[in-house]
Amino acid sequence: MNTFMEGWVCESLTNGTAYFWFEAFDEPWKVIFNTKNDQWESKWGLMDPNRNIKDGLKIPDCGGRTVDKPY
User: Fold this and answer.
1) Which of 19, 27, 37, 45 is most buried (CB neighbours < 10 A)?
2) Which residue, 15, 10, 19, 16, is CA-closest to 63?
């Protein structure tokens, strides 16, 4: 994940690629929809349900660059 964060996020700031976070936070409530044959993924997030960055994940600095036009 750190390789992706450093490569994709920083590079997108350089080349102007627009992106969004599909799941910023884990969503444990989704498991209420689990059935024997269908399981919902509840841990896609970069952060846990309490909005803490997951262990080991580093948010890249990207040389101080930031998004200039949020979508």
Assistant:
1) 45
2) 10
